Structure formats: C-alpha cells, structure tokens
Amino acid sequence: MTASSVTATGITFFIDRIDDTSTATNFWIAWGTGGSSTGGTATAADTGLKAAATEAFAAAALSQPAVDTNQFVATITAGTGKTIEEVILFGGTSTATSVASNRCIIRASHGGQALATGDAIQYTITHQMFPT
Amino acid sequence: MQKPPSELEVRPGTNVFSWGKVIVKIRVWREKEQRWYEVEK
Fold first, then answer.
1. ipTM of the complex
2. Helices (H) and strands (E) in chain B, counts
3. Interface membership of B10 toward A (CB under 8 Å)
4. Do B41 and A68 touch (CB under 8 A)?
5. Residue A60 CB contacts under 8 Å (≥ 6 apart), including other chains
6. Distance CA A124, CA A113 (A)
7. What is the pTM of this model?
8. Integer Cα distance of A4 and A23 in angstroms
C-alpha cells in the first residue's frame, strides 16, 4: 500500500519558491529499500529516504498538467537485484549528489517491487494543491 | 464546488489551505521480458 506525503522540508521549499530564496534549480527522484522497515511509512516529518539504494538519482521531468498541479516523471534502472519500497522527490542543483544537502519535497513508501538487474521503475509523482 | 480564494471564509484555527494531494504512479520495466507493467498505486 502506498503512503505519500509532502514533507515539512517540502513546505519550506514552496515558501522559499515564493520569495525566491530557493537555490534549487533541478528536481530529482531517488529510490530506496526502506519502505516497509520500522518507521518506513512515509510521513510529513521525512527528510530523505529510509534506506537509499545504490543507483544514481534520476533527473525528473517537470510538467504542469493543470494550473494547480505539478507532475514529475523519472525512471531509475536497477544495477543489481533488489526490492524497491520507497521514493522521494527533492530539489537540488544540476549535479545533485546527495539529498541531505538539498530538500526532500515528497516521500512515498509503496509495495515492494522486486527488481532484477536491468529492470526499472518509472515514477510519476503528481502534486495537486488546492484550498480546503 | 471549490470557492475561489477571495470567497474563502477565514477563521482562527481553521486551515484554509491544503498541501494537497500526492499521487505516485509506478510502471515497472522487466528487462527479461522487454515490456512495461502498470502497477496499482
């Protein structure tokens, strides 16, 4: 079962975008194996992956399918066999090498996907904001 | 139907803005089979 959340650092990211103090120029998607472990379910307090996998981050393609919605798409290919259970979207520079120095905007934990070498996951992360 | 922002009623302690909805869709590529699989959210 998928759990997903805009994180607290994601909220600061939105605020910084408005007053133009965000240094992020690119969006990245990263995956991990820690979605089902203790504390692995996604919450707003998350600041990164629970257990990052070894594959490089993938640059996310950003589009705006509606005026209140952003969509991020990226594909990551498994370098070795593993079970992927979590994903994050974060903002960074054009050469992001770590999440800690950037900002985790969204994290999701999902049902494990057992991958063999060369298998891949294409993530489509859609974020809609609206007044309540 | 959602009201435009100018019509929103603002009261102390009331959230008038949501961080919205996040949907994560997953497609899995199986290298051995050379095809994509749609995965339920």
1. 0.88
2. 0, 2
3. no
4. no
5. A26, A27, A28, A29, A72, A73, A74, A89, A125
6. 15
7. 0.85
8. 25
